[in-house]
From TrEMBL:
Limits of the XdhC- CoxI domain: 19-67
Pfam families: XdhC_C, XdhC_CoxI
The protein's name in its UniProt record: Xanthine dehydrogenase accessory factor
Domain XdhC Rossmann: 169-311
Organism whose genome encodes this protein: Pseudomonas inefficax
Length: 323
C-alpha cells in the first residue's frame, strides 16, 4: 500500500494541475494523546474534497467547515487544536490531546506544482529533503537532507519538515527476536519487510501485515531494497544470512544497520567482514554491533524492544551519550 503522505501529495498535485487551489496541512506538534504524528499530511481543495488525516476526525470536520466559510486566506497559518487557546479552533479533542497544524494556502501555479513534484519524488525514496517554510509570507525552500532528526523543527519564523520515503524496517532473516521486531516495527508505523530464504524456518510462522520475501536479504538489498529511510537488522546468528546482509547494507544509504551478537561474536564478525568482505573502518563503523540499547534485555521481546529503541534514537538524531 502506498505511503499515505505520498497519496496526499499526489492528490494535491492532481488538484493543482486541474486549476484548483489546495490547502496543504501538516501536523507540527502534538501534546498528550494524539492519533497522528508530527509531519502527517492532509490536503483539501476549494470544493471540500480532502485526503489524509490530522486526527481521528474531529479536527478534519472543523477544518473543512472553516475552509468552506473562506477561512485561511493567508499564504500560511498555524492553528492550535485541543486546548481552546486559539480563537479559530475552539474544539477540544476527545482524546485530551493538543496538536498544532501548519496550513498552507497553495494557488494553482507552476511553482507550486513543481514543489509538489519534488515532494512526490522524496516520498518515493528518490531523495530525502528538508522542506523549509517561512512565516508569515509562506515562501518554500527544498534542500537535500543528509542528517537524521525529528520530522518537524521550528526555529523562529522558519518551520523545517523532513520529507522522505515511508520508514522501512528490513529484517534480514527470521528468528524469535525478528518476530517481535516485526510486530513492534509495524506498531511504530514502519513498512516492515522480512527476507528469509529458508522454507523450514518459516514453516508455521504467521506475521500479519508484514511483507515476507523468500530470498536472501543480501540479494534484496543489492537489487534496490534499501533507501535512506531504511533500517536493516540481522538477527539470526547465521553468518550466511547476517554477514552477507551487512556486506550489502553498508553499500546503501540505510540510516541504521545492525546485527545481533555478543561483544566477542561482533568482534569476530568485524574481522571476517574486513578480511573476506574488504570492508574498511568507515563501513564497519556504520554497523551497530552488538545491536540495540543496553537495557539488560534477556528475552526475545526485550531484545527486540532494545533494537527498536536504538533505531528510534538514531532516527531522531539523538546520541547515545544524551540518553
Amino acid at each position: 500500500m502506498q505511503h499515505l503522505d505520498l497519496q496526499v501529495v499526489r492528490q494535491a498535485l492532481q488538484w493543482s494541475c486541474g486549476g484548483q487551489r489546495v490547502w496543504l496541512c501538516t501536523v507540527l506538534a502534538t501534546y498528550g494523546s494524539a492519533p497522528r504524528a508530527p509531519g502527517s499530511l492532509l490536503a483539501v481543495n476549494a470544493s471540500g474534497q480532502w485526503l489524509g488525516s490530522l486526527s481521528g476526525g474531529c479536527v478534519e470536520d472543523d477544518f473543512l467547515e472553516r475552509v468552506g466559510r473562506g477561512a485561511f486566506p493567508e499564504p500560511v497559518a498555524i492553528v492550535r487544536y485541543g486546548d481552546g487557546s486559539d480563537s479559530r479552533s475552539s474544539i477540544r479533542l476527545p482524546c485530551g490531546g493538543v496538536l498544532e497544524v501548519l496550513v498552507e494556502n497553495l494557488p494553482a501555479e507552476c511553482d507550486v506544482q513543481a514543489h509538489l513534484r519534488e515532494l512526490e519524488s522524496a516520498l518515493q525514496g528518490q531523495r530525502r529533503v528538508l522542506r523549509e517554510v517561512s512565516l508569515p509570507e509562506g515562501t518554500r525552500l527544498l534542500v537535500d537532507d543528509q542528517s537524521q532528526g525529528p520530522r518537524v523543527e521550528r526555529e523562529g519564523a522558519c518551520v523545517r519538515l523532513r520529507v522522505g520515503a515511508a520508514q522501512r524496517l528490513l529484517l534480514a532473516g527470521y528468528s524469535s527476536v525478528a518476530h517481535f521486531c516485526a510486530e513492534f516495527g509495524k506498531g511504530m508505523g514502519f513498512e516492515v519487510i522480512l527476507c528469509e530464504p529458508r522454507d523450514e524456518v518459516l514453516d508455521g510462522v504467521r506475521l500479519d501485515g508484514i511483507e515476507v520475501r523468500r530470498e536472501l536479504p543480501s540479494e534484496f538489498i543489492a537489487h534496490g531494497g534499501c533507501h535512506a529511510d531504511t533500517a536493516v537488522v540481522a538477527l539470526t546468528h547465521d553468518p550466511k544470512i547476517d554477514d552477507l546482509a551487512m556486506l550489502e547494507a553498508v553499500r546503501t544509504e540505510a540510516f541504521y544497520i545492525g546485527v545481533m551478537g555478543s561483544l566477542a561474536t561482533s568482534d569476530k564478525r568485524r574481522e571476517r567482514l574486513r578480511r573476506i568482505g574488504g570492508l574498511g573502518d568507515v563501513e564497519l563503523g556504520r554497523i551497530h554491533a552488538p545491536i540495540g540499547l543496553n537495557l539488560g534485555s534477556k528475552t526475545p521481546a526485550e531484545i527486540a524492544l532494545a533494537v527498536l529503541a536504538d533505531i528510534l534514537r538514531v532516527r531522531n538524531g539523538i546520541e547515545r551519550a544524551a540518553l
